[in-house]
Design a protein that fits this description.
This protein has 275 residues and is of the alpha/beta class. The chain contains eleven helices and ten strands. The protein folds into two domains: 228 residues, Rossmann fold (3-Layer(aba) Sandwich); 38 residues, no CATH class. Helix 3 crosses helix 4 and helix 3 packs parallel to helix 5. The longest helix is centred in the middle third of the chain and has 18 residues. It is globular.
């Protein structure tokens, strides 16, 4: 679905933000891109979406080079949820906002079909179409932006810090919906996220970046259990992963309070003594 082949990018008058990065993402994966500020995460997802073009190497979406494809072609395949939803909401009502994306990307389907799809999305997200987006809370505006993207049914969904500024309930609401899209509709998800607990709960694979370079690529739990890698990338692993790693043998698969408790009970039942 996504292929980056020795991709580099440098902003004017700055050093390389992405330096010789290569990886592939298959259809239906849920991938998190991790790293400290300035690691090159947001630049990487902007390269995937074609918002910027590589200074070296090649980015392909479903076999098509992003340099040669049009904005409209990419918009049919790739949805991008910005870190700040206010930068992509541009209409006066929620209904108009959702219709705007549909008319822009799927305008050849006819106005009646697009309005029916809009009402379906409004109902699914629980919005009143006449609400003004900027009268809503930060979390609700994030949901409006997400609704407008998912309405066009992209094959790839890119999320740049989707949980920033959200409370726990809002975070779970948005991320659970994204997981359902990934699992039920096989939407490929690429997520930049600073919240390692969210990454652990939702992503299956992690790419770790530092200084514009790709340091590691693997299953989320394995990545988090690599203490040397976490230190090199300036990332703090989720608390339960850190605890289970310190506990050692018998806790290799423990990544939640429940699974740690289960591991303790299993060791006690087996008569093992654990430091």
């Amino acid at each position: 679905m996504i292929n980056l082949d020795h991709v580099s990018f440098a902003y004017p008058e700055q050093g390389p933000s992405v330096n010789d990065v290569s990886f592939r993402v298959e259809d239906g994966e849920f991938v998190a891109i991790l790293g400290a500020n300035g690691a090159g995460k947001t630049t990487t997802v902007r390269l995937i979406d074609g918002l910027i073009r590589p200074t070296a190497g090649k980015v392909e979406i479903n076999g098509t080079d992003t340099v040669t494809s049009s904005v409209s072609e990419r918009a049919r395949k790739v949805g991008f949820l910005f870190q700040n939803p206010d930068r992509q909401i541009c209409k006066n009502t929620v209904r108009e906002e959702i219709l705007f994306g549909l008319q822009t990307v799927r305008g050849d389907e006819g106005e009646e079909a697009l309005r029916a799809r809009c009402e379906e999305v409004l109902k699914d997200f629980g919005f009143s179409g006449d609400e003004e987006p900027f009268s809503l809370s930060r979390g609700q505006r994030q949901r409006v932006a997400l609704a407008s993207i998912l309405a066009v049914e992209p094959e790839i969904l890119i999320l740049d810090e989707p949980t920033t500024g959200l409370d726990y309930f809002e975070c779970c609401h948005i991320m659970d919906r994204i997981r359902r899209m990934n699992e039920e509709n096989r939407v490929t998800v690429i997520m930049v996220c600073h919240d390692m607990e969210v990454v652990l709960d939702y992503a299956k694979r992690a790419l770790v970046m530092a200084g514009g370079h790709l340091l590691a690529d693997g299953p989320v739990k394995e990545i988090f259990r690599d203490a040397a890698l976490m230190e090199k990338a300036s990332i703090l692993a989720p608390q339960m992963i850190s605890l289970s790693t310190r506990l050692g043998e018998g806790f290799e698969d423990a990544d939640s309070p429940e699974s740690v408790a289960d591991a303790v009970l299993a060791l006690r039942k087996g008569g093992a003594r654990h430091a």
